[in-house]
């Protein structure tokens, strides 16, 4: 897994609540058998009209906004467990998603792919949106080591929470499979001493 | 400390707890399907790791499958390839597959319970968020992503933080015409779509105790729609009666022994929950959604609430509805009765009972998709298919179908569909489609009337 330590970049605002994984990657694009190529269909039905023309009102098509940080409304990633949503965001070029709340499965999927789901308070989220709307070249600084996110121009900052185990995985690029396989002996012992369905 | 049903099962499955980190949770059963498994098989192959416990995995094909002419090769090349891949992966790794055409084939959350694969006290996972369904048996069951599918392949375990505990109590008497689907839609509309995030939810109270297993599955199925990873209902005689004699349930003495254990799986008095809600059953009426998330639901007889936020405005604009508007009498051209929420035999009996001797309205396309081959056979055995045919409903072969529209069963852009499925997200049932979630009875009544109707008015 790719490591994540810190990042300073501009951000794309998507001030919509309850963005579900069907919007992030619609079900009709889930027929692939590998992890490649999902980026081009990210937010497909919001980015393009039914004839395939870009929707100019959607912020991913707005030249003003670019960068590897996506800032989204409350409860991002709700709905289906499809990890394709995390793959699509990553393939498109996002490295951090900022929201005031993440759905559980999406959060886990992101962390398993080196994509940082960064939860801020609703108040700080408002400040970030305001800063980006005021100046689209506003940069956000994200430091995983210190668990800090900062709005560069104003210096306003907030600490964020992350599971210490997951933080360690991201910083070092470790993943859960390596760890679980290393615990095989303990798992087998558990199987021996407990009831097996 | 007093233990909840959830604690009892979770604690019995912890292999190790990592200090200041997650638990290593042992997984008893792993269900897989064609859409979220191929990349996990690839992952293991690339790392040169073999599947640790193939016998604890059961596969089915459901998401991508056509609901007509299942005996013919699948027309869509990508779908066909995905199913081929599943077959090959299962063959290569000695995994049992109930593929298309197999008598046990069906939607993963319908076929596993009806075969007795799902049992109380188990931990069960699947790369599908509606795995919460299996909690109806007193099972810790939750949806996982593909990386986690690979983790379970490799180790039969998952690294997970123990979720917080939530209990929703519903007591009292349900009104006539109120189905389990209405109960869960009501709960989600009251608590909101992220009220359950970070929690496992136990449903308690006489309403759930009196519910059939099919009804309990409908309720637990939609736990994820309020953000909860899973739902749970304590196993009881209803559970045991349902399980007894099922293909993979324990038999004879083994069954009796397991029953003793299963009976111990109850939340102790005075056990603490992190959050608890109580609802009076008589407040619940048949429900319908008007927006683009399952929490945007109202009683059939109510008007759309006045909203404030931008996101709600966006949802209403997509749906073509206005604040304060009533949904009663809205013409509807599409009805879908199916999905892992409502495609079990009891759902189709309810529908058949309502539409018997009636005709669907001329404007309506009414699609009925059983959850499994076994349900489809049961529909025939009970003669329900004649009732559907005579009423002008189209009875298809089993699969996920128009719930997520990965196959050809799509609702056209701009059209409304009253659907018994679980998600009303934008474009969920096809690009531009507009979904109104409701119970099988509400869907059936809409099909007959050709418009949304307050069918309970005709009840005595």
Give your account of this protein's structure.
The complex is a heterodimer of chains A (197) and B (460). Chain A is of the alpha/beta class. Chain A contains 8 helices and 7 strands; from the N terminus they run βααβαβαβαβββααα. Chain A has helices spanning 21-24, 44-47, 84-92, 104-111, 122-134, 164-172, 176-182, 184-193; strands at 6-14, 69-72, 96-99, 116-119, 139-143, 148-151, 157-159. In chain A, strands 4-3-2-1-5-6-7 form a 7-stranded mixed beta sheet. In chain A, a hairpin with a 5-residue loop joins strand 6 and strand 7 (157-159). The two termini of chain A are 34 Å apart. Chain B is α/β, with parallel strands linked by helices and 460 residues long. Helix content of chain B is 31%, strand content 17%. Chain B has 15 helices and 19 strands. Chain B has helices at 5-11, 38-47, 77-92, 108-114, 146-155, 180-191, 206-209, 213-221, 237-243, 252-263, 310-319, 345-355, 373-381, 384-391, 440-449; strands at residues 14-17, 23-26, 29-32, 57-60, 96-98, 123-126, 140-143, 157-160, 164-171, 199-204, 230-232, 275-280, 287-289, 297-299, 334-337, 365-368, 394-395, 416-419, 434-437. In chain B, the strands form 5 sheets. Chain B has a 5-stranded parallel beta sheet with strand order 5-4-3-6-7. In chain B, strands 17-16-15-18-19 form a 5-stranded parallel beta sheet, with helices on one face. In chain B, helix 2 (38-47) links the parallel strand 3 and strand 4 (57-60). The radius of gyration of chain B is 21 Å and the shape is globular. The model of chain B has no long low-confidence stretch (mean pLDDT 97). The interface between A and B is large, with 56 and 73 residues.
């Amino acid at each position: 897994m790719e490591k994540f330590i810190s990042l300073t970049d501009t951000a794309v605002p998507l001030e919509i609540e309850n963005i579900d994984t069907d919007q992030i990657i619609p079900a009709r694009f889930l027929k692939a058998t590998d992890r490649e190529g999902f980026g081009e269909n990210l937010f497909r039905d919001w980015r393009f009209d039914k004839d395939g023309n870009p929707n100019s009102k959607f912020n991913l098509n707005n030249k003003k906004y670019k960068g590897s940080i996506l800032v989204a409304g409350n409860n991002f990633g709700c709905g289906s467990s499809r990890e394709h949503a995390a793959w699509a965001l990553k393939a498109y070029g996002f490295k951090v998603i900022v929201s005031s709340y993440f759905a559980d499965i999406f959060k886990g999927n992101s962390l398993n792919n080196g994509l940082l789901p960064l939860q801020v308070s609703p108040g700080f989220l408002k400040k970030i949106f305001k800063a980006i709307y005021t100046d689209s070249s506003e940069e956000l600084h994200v430091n995983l080591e210190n668990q800090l996110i900062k709005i560069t121009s104003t210096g306003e900052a907030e600490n964020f929470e992350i599971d210490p185990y997951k933080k360690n995985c991201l910083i070092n690029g470790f993943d859960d499979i390596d760890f679980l396989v290393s615990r095989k002996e303990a798992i087998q012992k558990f199987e021996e001493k407990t009831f097996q369905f | 400390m007093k233990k909840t049903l959830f604690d009892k099962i979770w604690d019995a499955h912890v292999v190790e707890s990592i200090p200041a980190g997650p638990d290593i949770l042992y997984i008893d059963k792993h269900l897989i399907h064609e859409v979220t498994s191929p990349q996990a098989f690839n992952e293991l192959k690339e790392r040169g790791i073999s599947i640790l416990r193939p016998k604890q995995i059961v596969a089915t094909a459901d998401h991508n499958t056509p609901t007509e002419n299942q005996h013919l090769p699948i027309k869509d090349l990508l779908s066909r390839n995905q199913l081929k891949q599943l077959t090959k992966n299962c063959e290569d790794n000695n995994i049992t597959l109930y593929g298309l055409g197999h008598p046990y084939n069906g939607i993963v959350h319908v076929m596993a319970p009806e075969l007795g694969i799902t049992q109380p006290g188990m931990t069960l996972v699947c790369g599908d968020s509606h795995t919460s369904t299996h909690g109806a048996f007193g099972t810790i069951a939750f949806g996982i992503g593909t990386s986690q599918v690979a983790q379970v392949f490799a180790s039969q375990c998952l690294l997970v933080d123990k979720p917080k505990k939530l209990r929703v109590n519903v007591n009292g008497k349900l009104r006539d015409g109120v189905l389990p689907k209405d109960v869960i839609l009501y709960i989600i509309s009251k608590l909101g779509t992220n009220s359950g995030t970070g929690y496992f939810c136990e449903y308690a109270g006489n309403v759930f105790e009196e519910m059939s297993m099919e009804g309990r599955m409908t309720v637990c199925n939609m736990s994820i729609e309020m953000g909860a990873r899973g739902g749970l209902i304590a196993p009881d005689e209803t559970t045991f009666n349902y399980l007894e004699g099922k293909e993979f349930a324990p038999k004879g003495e083994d069954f009796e022994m397991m029953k003793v254990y299963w009976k111990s799986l109850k939340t102790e008095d005075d056990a603490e929950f992190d959050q608890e809600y109580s609802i009076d059953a008589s407040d619940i009426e048949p429900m319908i959604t008007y927006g683009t998330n399952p929490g945007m639901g109202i009683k059939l007889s109510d008007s759309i609430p006045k909203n404030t936020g931008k996101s709600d405005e966006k949802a209403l604009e997509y749906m073509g509805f206005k604040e304060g508007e009533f949904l009663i009498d809205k013409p509807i051209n599409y009805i879908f009765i199916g999905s892992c929420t409502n495609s079990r035999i009891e759902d189709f009996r309810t529908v058949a009972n309502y539409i018997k001797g009636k005709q669907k309205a001329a404007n309506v396309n009414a699609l009925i998709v059983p959850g499994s081959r076994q349900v489809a056979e049961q529909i025939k055995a009970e003669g329900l298919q004649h009732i559907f045919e005579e009423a002008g409903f189209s009875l298809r072969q089993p699969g996920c179908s128009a719930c997520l529209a990965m196959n050809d069963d799509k609702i056209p852009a701009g059209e409304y569909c009253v659907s018994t499925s679980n998600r009303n997200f934008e474009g969920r049932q096809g690009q531009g489609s507009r979904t109104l979630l409701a119970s099988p009875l509400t869907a059936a009544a809409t099909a007959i009337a050709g418009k949304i109707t307050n069918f309970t008015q005709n009840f005595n």
